[in-house]
Every structure is written in structure tokens, then in C-alpha cells.
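FAQ
Q: What does a multi-component entry look like?
A: The components come first, one per line:
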Amino acid sequence: MLKIENLSKSFGGVAATSDVSLHFPQGSLSAVIGPNGAGKTTFFNLITGALRPDKGRILLDNEDIAGLSPPEIVRRGIGRAFQIARIFPTLTVHDAILGAVQAHRNQHTVMSRRFPLVELEERAAHVMQLVGLTGKAKVLSRNLSHGDQKLLDIALALVLEPRVLLLDEPTAGMGPEERWAMIDTVHRMWELERMTLIFIEHDMSIVFKIAQSVKVLSYGRVLAEGTPDEIRRHPEVIKAYLGDEFEAAHA
Amino acid sequence: MNARSSLLRDSLIAIAAFLLLAALPYIFPSKGFTDFVVRLAAFGIFATSLNLLVGYSGMESFGHGLYFGLGCYTFALIMQNFAVSIPVAFLLTILLSVVVAVVVGSICVNLSEIYFAFLTLAFQMLLHSLIIAWTPITGGDQGLTGGIPRPPFLGIRLDNYYHLYLFSSGLLVVCLLAMHHIVQSPFGYTLRMIRDNVSRAPFLGINVFRVRLMAYVIAGAFGAVGGMIMSLFVSGAFPDFAYWTISGEAIFMIMLGGITVFLGPLVGAVMLLLLNDVVTKLTSHYGIVLGGIILLFALGLRKGVLDFVADMWRDRRQATLSAESRSEPVASAKPVAAGE
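Then the predicted structure of the entire assembly, as C-alpha cells:
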């Protein structure tokens, strides 16, 4: 269970996140939405330790992880994929994923043995199969298509066996068909691995199709939260983000 | 090939390389040749150790000569001032280099590229200034002269030039084998990950500072071994071995031989030492000729010799793999239909 309490972060005079309190039950699938500049990525950065909060608590199974470094937070079970895929261009898909597994199993400073450590292969193979990259295991990451690079980015987080997985716009930059294939993969992954999955997404058809709950941020604050049905009818969300056209189209 | 068999293969190659090196003086029985190989051992280890940082870790150190100079002077001073055996002096020198590398590395490794490059250079020049200024101990700008005692150990007599040749060749082979093992270990792949994407690595649980510091210390220790061989070769130590140009030469070796292939720096060391030996015989304008050749590589090939060869092979292989992966069916299940 991930519980955020009064989380705040300012850059100079700009409050990027302001008194955000949210609750993500264990095993839930939640979407975080909001207009550009709403503080969604900052929210992820605070949870994963990329930024230190000015105040507030981030409780992962009742342990406050606010202010810990990213490696410490990863070790406590929070994984993350990025809006722009952050991969390892000169490594093959297989080697990159195995590198992540060995880091997760604290074997990444081993010098007495050769890479790859065979006992870690099973987990890497499982995750490659899960995201559909098995056939591209020997391809250099930099030679993958944009969609496959996004999948690899997710695989790198998934291989860490996270209790909470944060995906920042997993479908960014994809065409419609590719986008739905990605969402299908993400959904299948969530069903199989049963982690708490939180994703940022701008495509409302995706959000309302797969999310169990939706959190809406605006100007760094929580504007609304609820089920997809509650959010699509929420007057303030329609006014601040979805727009009247969305309401008319989905009435 | 599994991990155990690749280690066995490397060890067999190393033994074969050493036996070949041991036999070469019988084919080329000239003092010039053995001297060349001893210098190559010193610079080959030194340049390869720098490439652990530059090539594998993405840490462009301009001051790696700190460890070459430190190894050279520490070893020479220990041998001149204390009645210890050569292996003990070797171990003490490596120990000191590790201590210095831990201190310098702790300050430098988390800095961004340009600050890391110049702060490491500053530390090297600090050592150089210390050597020049501390004349009673270091001999100042004249260097440590008077020779190095070479007490025999394990039947090895380093005052015999063939023994020195074998000893240096053995160290070259052992150090290259050890460094190759390191870059092929899980640790070596962690270094590649940090080099490729330093901002992603922490989100996989990697403590970037710790891993970089380990790489820096290892590179420093091997760099010192290069310096010790040079100290044995010249039978002393000179301030030039701690001057910034020694770091520059190692960078040139990496540029010439290749950064992405393990043996690139060694090949670069062969090229640079040959250039040095040949060009200096033909002209006094060595720097101009060397600069021209470096420019040729930088602007022409845009990579080292072995990089060029390896890239051609990799591109061909990746093109085949990409074509194969495109022709395979997608592993994921049928996509969810857009909308409802």
C-alpha cells in the first residue's frame, strides 16, 4: 500500500506539488491525469527519490520513504519507467535486463564471476516474454523501435519485482495501434504480477478503459479522485482538463 | 559459450600470449626489441587501465598519470630506502595507490564530465608539483637517480634484461587478463550501464557513486603497476612520468587503438610507441607528425583502429538480427481494441 500525505515541493516560488494526499491500495491500478504542468511527473519524481520533498510523507506499507535516495527506494519496492525511455543504448535487450536483475539482487558489483549470472536468467527471460521482447533479446537497445524502447524501459522496472510500479506516459509518442498494444501489455503485466500500478496518461480513452481509480492533479494540487465514471462526470475536472467536448462525446 | 568456458579460453589465450612473448627475443634478438616490449607493458597496462574509466565507465579522466607517476616514484623510493623485496615493494605501492585513489575518487567521481576531467588533472599536477618541490626526497626536477636495487626473488633477477623482459611481459598478460575479467563480470556490465545512462542506473538500485569509486580505485591500482614497470625500466623515476603529458599519451593510445574494444588501448600503445621510435629517428618535429596522425584518426576514421573493425562487424550482425526479429511474430497477445 502506498499512502501519500501532504506532499509538497516548490521550485523557487512555484509550487509544483502542494499538499498532495493520495492513497493507492495494494494491487490497484490507478491513473494520474491532469493538464501539462499539473505536477504529475514531479509527483513521480518525489515518490521515486529523484526529488526531495519540502514536506510531507510517503508511506510504503507504513514506512516513510520520503527523502530516501532512488536506489534505497528501489530496494524497498518502487520501480519506475520514464516518459522518454531511459535505456542503455550499447547493451542488448538481454544484457540490459540482466544488468537490472543483478542490480536488484545486489549482484552488480560481483567481480569474481562472469556476466551473465546464470541463476538470474530465468527472471530476465520471464520479463522479456511478458513484455514481448524475447525475439529481440540480442538486438542492441539503440536499434529498437520507439515502442520497443518504451517496452524495454518498462521491462527494466518490472524486472526489479516492484510492489509499486510507476509508468510515466507509457504510450507517449506512439501511434493508435501501437498505443493499444502497449496498454494491453501493461494491463496483462499488472494482472500477472499483481503489483500496485500507477500510470500517467493523456489519452482519456485508455485511462477510462483500464484504470480502477483516477487521480486528477491541477497546479500541483489534487483536483479530484474517484472511479473513471466519477471523474468523467466531475464538473471541475471537465472544466479544468477534459473540456465540454469530451463530456459531450462521452455523454 | 558459458562463463566458465570463456574464462578458461581467456586463460589459455593469456598463457599462449606469454609463451609467444617469451619466445620472441629468440626470433628478434635485439635489445631494442626487448626494451620496446618492456615499455609497451608499462604503457599498455596504463592505457588499458585508463580505458576502464574512459571506455567502460564514461569517466574521462585527464589525470590518470597521477597513478603512473605515483607508482613509479613510490616503488623507486621504497626500493632505494628500505631493504624489502620487489614483491613487497609492489604490494606496498599498490596499497598506497589504492589509498590515494579512494581519497581522490571520493572527491571526484560524482562530478560532471568536465569537472571530473579537470579536477583529476589538478590532482595529478599536485603530485607533479610535490615531486619538483620536495627535492631531498624525490630528487626534484632531476628525478630519482642512482638506480634501483633489484634483489632476486623466486629465481627472477631483474638486473638481467631478459628476466626484466619476461617479468614485464608476465605482468602485462596477467594485468590484461585481470582487467578483461573485470569488464566481463557483472561489475563490468554495471559500469557500462552507468556509462550509457547515468540517470537511469539509480532507479535500478545501483549506487552510482560506489560503483564509480570502485572503478576509479581499480584503474588507479593498475595504473600504478604501469608506473612500477617504467620505474624498473629506467631504474629510477622522473618528473615527466607524473606530468600531464603522460595522461595525454594514454588518451592518444586509446584514441588510436580504440575505446570500445578491450585490446584497443594496447594496440594504440604499440602504434604510439612505434611512431615515437620511428618518427624521432627521422625528424626532430615529432609533435607535428604525431598531431597530424591523431588528426587523421579523429577527422578521418572518427574512431580507433579496432573500433572501426568492431563497428563494421557489429553493424553487420545487428542488421541480420534486426531483420530476423522483424520476421518473427510479435509475442504479445492480441491488442485491446481502441475505445469500447
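Q: Is there any commentary attached?
A: Sometimes. For this entry: Residues 3-323 of chain B form a domain with the ABC transporter involved in vitamin B12 uptake, BtuC fold (CATH 1.10.3470).
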